[in-house]
Amino acid sequence: MSISVISLLYIGIMLILAKLAEEALGRLNLVRFIGPIFVGIILGQGVLNVIKINAIISFITSLGIVFLLFLAGAEELGEGIKFNFKDVLSSDIELAIPIVAIGLTLYYLHEFSPLILIPLAMTSVGPLTRLLIDLNIAKERIGISIFYQSMINEIISVIIFALFYSNFRTSSIVGIVILVVIIFALGKSIARTLELIEKYIKVREIEFASIISLILIVGFIAELYDFNSAIIALFLGFLLRDYLKDRPHILERLHGFTYGFFEPLFFVSIGLYFVRISLNLLAVSAIVLVVVLGSKIISGFIASNFYGWDKIINSLGTSVKGGVDVSLLITALTAGLISPFAYSFSSLAIALSSLIVPLVFRFRYGKPKVQRKEKIYYAQEIGKVIKNKIVTKDDEILREAITKMTANGYRALVVVDEDDRPKGYISITQIIEIDPSEYETLKVGDLDKYDVNIMDEKSKVIDVIREFRRTEAPVIAVVDKDGRLTTVVYERELLRVLI
């Protein structure tokens, strides 16, 4: 049987089992992405050896890393960096101590390599963000500081890794520097070019195709200079964060494209690359795990003295792993720069660390409080189910309306008059055809409005769902008996409360 044919079966099995594993760990209140990794270990040569890495799966995996890191740059690093001296100093300590401790351990185990050391020593911002939200401290001073400490740590680590990945070759370094400088120097020009494509080329999904094309072409250029395409995608995502924030519909498609297909396959493939599970592998992984956790926690504990707040939260928060670090390891492996055994014990140590740190958090501070959702029935009145009055008016500056749409992920926004009666709606499609330089001067009233679907507040939930299906409307306005708006309904929000 040909590789292309058997790969269809492999990818189908990997995809569904990855999602089932994510669901299983989610129900146990554990880190979800660990599930697919263990699925890969079991299916691959680590245990059963029923699915083997081939050229097609390897190619899809490499694409998965690229798109994952692009979104990481656009979202995890998308808030910018506040160069607070304490945060910079703390992040340096939280990287230096683990590098020394883990480096000595790897040297003792005869497995030393900077391409293993850096991923093991760094902090991952993606899983940290989820943890801070669960603990309800993401917007508090301590949560914000931990985020910035970890973000600086991650960026420094990626740059150091990139230098070792290129083996410090002068030609590679010069090429990399030129490429990065060009990307950042032409950042606004790249965004404007994408905007011109949107404006003059009207074929379906041209915006989405343009982003994908840009990521792949820039990745190709990076590889020509012996630089990693995934790392350059991280920088590119960071550069285009504002462009994507103004276009939530593109970001939503990228999410579906990446998290619905590439992410689960990527995490399964992490396990597929493992060597046969043995006592020696488990013993080395356990040693590395203890050193990684110990050095990360100690360094975070020391750094917390600069702030005077809870030392345990700071030390555990800056010890979170399991995001970009694993991507870097698999990048080094597929490039033949580290051995399969070194990759296996390092990835296993990171995976176990990703499970342990959140569990310790919950043991110390309790399980995150989650409000029990009241069951919603299709026969209930829509006015009692959805409470949303995020709307706009004609005299509102267009930028303010865009902010409301992007902050909530809306594709449309209902426009009301002074008496709160719906006048129509504006859509994201209209906005992307307008020059962004005019966002601050135009008002909502300057845009033509689409007719908005209006329903009575006593309409049933099932009636609203049917209306969405019948009309494919982006939003429905719900009014009282006097025609005044009581709530606006988006299909995705409605389905979310029903699940």
Automatic annotation (TrEMBL):
The chain crosses the membrane at residues 6-22, 29-47, 53-72, 145-165, 171-191, 203-221, 256-275, 281-303, 348-365. SMART domains: CBS (SM00116). GO terms for molecular function: antiporter activity. Residues 385-441 form the CBS domain. Its main location: membrane. This is Cation:proton antiporter. GO terms for biological process: proton transmembrane transport; sodium ion transport. It holds the Pfam family Na_H_Exchanger. It is a multi-pass membrane protein. Keywords: Antiport, CBS domain, Ion transport, Membrane, Sodium, Sodium transport, Transmembrane, Transmembrane helix, Transport. It is found in: Membrane. SUPFAM superfamilies: CBS-domain pair (SSF54631). InterPro entries: Cation/H_exchanger_TM (IPR006153), CBS_dom (IPR000644), CBS_dom_sf (IPR046342), Na+/solute_symporter_sf (IPR038770). GO terms for cellular component: membrane.
